[in-house]
Amino acid sequence: MPDYAAKLQRQFGQTLRTERKARGFTQQQLASGASLSLTYVGEIERGQRMVSLDTLRRLAGALDLTAADLLVRARI
Known about the structure:
By secondary structure, the protein is mainly α. About 70% of the residues lie in helices and about 0% in strands. The protein contains five helices and no strands. Helix 2 (about 25-35) packs across helix 3 and helix 2 (about 25-35) crosses helix 4. The chain is globular and about 30 Å long.
């Protein structure tokens, strides 16, 4: 994977974790709200997985954000 893609994954994961914690959610609560597995959410937050547009939309919705808002906050 190119370094730039890995950097984006880490950046998005860190932002996702920050937004989740700011709302007082556990990873399990976010996973449930987004209809994703706990393992998958953890991998995203650690920058180990790249999200699809559908997953981005689900995560943003669970955080009461738009997908665009979440990307802007991640500076992507």
